[in-house]
Input
Amino acid sequence: MKCFLLLVLVIGLDLSSANSIPSYNHYRLPTALRPQKYYLRILTLLESPDDLRFVGNVQIVIEALKNTRNITLHSKNLTIDESRITLRQISGASNKDNCVSSTSVNPTHDYYIMHTCEELLAGNVYKLGLPFSADLTRQLFGYYLSSYKNPVTNKTRWLSATQFEPSFARKAFPCFDEPGFKASFVVTLGYHKQFKAISNMPVREIRKHESLQNYIWCEFQESVPMSTYLVAYSVNDFTFKPSTLPNGALFRTWARPNAIDQCNYAAEFGPKVLQYYEEFFGIRYPLPKIDQMAVPDFSAGAMENWGLVKYRESTLLYSPNHSSLADKQDLANVIAHELAHQWFGNLVTMKWWTDLWLNEGFATYVAGLGVQKIHPEWDSRDKSSLVALMASFRLDSLVSSHPISRPIRMVAEIEESFDAISYQKGSAVLRMMHLFMGEESFRTGLKEYLKLYAYKNAEQNNLWESLTTAAHQNGALAGHYDINTIMDSWTLQTGYPVLNITRDYSAGTAEITQERYLRNSQIPQADRVGCWWVPLSYTSREENDFNTTAPKAWMECSSTDEGVPTIIDHQAGPDEWLILNIQLSTPYKANYDARNWKLLIDALNSKEFESIHVINRAQLLDDVLYFAWTGEQDYETALQVTNYLRRERDLIPWKSALDNLKLLNRILRQTPNFGSFKRYMKRLLTPIYEHLHGMNDTFSSMPQQDEVLLKTTVVNVACQYDVSDCVTQAQAYFRRWRAEANPDENNPVPLNLRSTVYCTAIGQGTEEDWNFLWTRYRKSNVGSERQTILSTLGCSKEVWILQRYMEKSFDPKSAIRKQDSSLCFQAVASGQVGFLLAKQYFIENVELIHKYYYPQTRTMSRLLTPLSEQVSTLSDLKKFRSFANDSRQLLKGIRQAMQQSLETMLTNVQWMDWNYHQFSRTIRRHL
Output
């Protein structure tokens, strides 16, 4: 969901005034004025491909809070006709005309500043009128152009769409473009009558255009007060599928006409999760309608605009014949996430982007609750919690990470916050709080917060106050504890702790200390500072209570924010294992003394391994593989833990292990000892592969949905390591598909195995195989299928084919949409052959790539991840550092991502220096 030079073409006034840089240069708007209401009229011209543009006028009702002679607001890339600007006082001692004497711009902050003829006086209300126009471009931000092909006529059909988060409403109309400036909006759209229009609110009136033949004006009802980034509208020729929502809002799901049959699942799931949130938050959905819209070109996965939620086609449309179970679950999570925003983000909005996580962390967390409620058979809540934790652990173990609540001092910095820290770590700390507060206190506090700040803006401290009150009233938190102190330790500092647990086996106690966990093992101990308030939950072999996640004790911080060693009286016997962090309820890592690890290893490698909760089995795997990477444990210990996977039959531990082992794979496959690692992986995978009946289509007989995902995951990795008949079976499926007379209608490859089959066949296949799959991409009408194909076309091992594919990815005239270009590059860069090509391509073509994405160059950060995970030699690291330095102007929009990538490369180099030989010797002993 989701700067560059301000262009204001001035008509009718002295140009010298518009070119001057004013003295006001703060990154936040002045507070002398506050908008109350916008009357926004926009005429959209979509008929002629040579004249795609919009012309508008905005009347802003503004209250003066202080005396001022300047009106400062945002405008970007808009042509403003200054000769037609109007300013009139509409309340106060006397209503009279004012005027604008001159204007100036501040391109750094996108400010358009009007200097008034007479002073605006505090307490008075004014109406400012600004006429504007701009071309509709395909930049995917602001008010932009999208299209699709009519399959019958083969002609391009144009449509317009908006994407204003975080700071792009200013590209569509002049406005006070900060989340704290909430106002109501009356939107009126003009367009040719062959189209339709939708916006945040229902239609109030449609009337003929006063001068343009066959054009109409569509006026929408006045909105509730909301931030500019949530305003949305579109002119299109789509159709919709209505949903039944008893006693609730009108609910519609929109798509292009030839994809409307793919709206059924979203139209069924959406209303159910909306009703769940009404009950969960204790507040009815506040608008009279809600629309979901699948946009062919969309930069974000989805966007929560109030009353008009927009999605990529792949995150809203579902085809039972073309989409896998994983696709369906991802789709449900995205819909649940966006609809949660209607309360968290839309009804109550952060004051400033510092607290973006209040939007994104909450929507991520409660989406998991919503999906679990609607689809209990998926049992997806634990998996989504683990995914959130693992994503945040990976990024937050870097020195170059950032706090959840992050100071933002430039608009350009806002987009950097849309990452795993705001979403996944934000979700993880909320889950922690939910578990230590308990259901009643958590929900009571949330409801009170939403009621207090409805239609207003809030900061995280406002949330902490409501939750503290609820926790104390319900006795969920001791009176001398408060949520503010506890949670600030998690949201205001970077990183997370590792808890070092040393047991006294005769006394039945354990001493616990904490320090920040970092993957960069060169950072000295003295610099691993930080203190977190940690709720301590734990159990032993004898007690075996993995259901009680409420803390039995707390790790506290001193008045100087230093960790205080904590003694717990766990009463576990000397031959019993001890496990902290029940169900991974808190985002920390637990490192035990050698004897406790030995007891855990013995338990995992015995028949009683399932007595340890499935999430804690995943935790042990994740923790020990991290510790082995950074030297806190040796690889002998780590591999004794992973050996138990030959018995494991649950998805969550396998996901934890495979995500960690994949990072080792990407380094080791460039070394002479990769053969040993490959044999070890085949040994681990063969029992589970055979248990799941391999590549055969046995999905219909699986009683649990988790088993479907387990098989999907295992078979995919099995083919990469050439386990059993995996590769030959995949090739056979692909050959059968190629032999079909009508392959676009008849596909014999099992839905849940298509990604694996396509990738394996392309990797082992010919140019004809690649071209066959490319043709299927060109002819596909299903977003999720198109994404699957694009991600597997990069599996080829032919250098020239991969080179050609990367060139297609960044060619504006190719069949690959801009939103999918990074997916294609990642697919190539993730392959053993493709990595070297992609690294070279990125370095040599960074200027071309920058130009392709400009001005939204943040997308380039998505290209870095597969590169950073595979650079592992000092010479390659130095070359990449040198490249980053030489190209810093082109890479300044992804400065943070580049720092994180270089740090990841450094940790890979460290691993090769310190662990490679030890790991290679150890793994040979386990074959």
Q: What stands out?
A: The two ends are 46 Å apart (CA to CA). The CA atoms of residues 541 and 818 lie 54 Å apart.
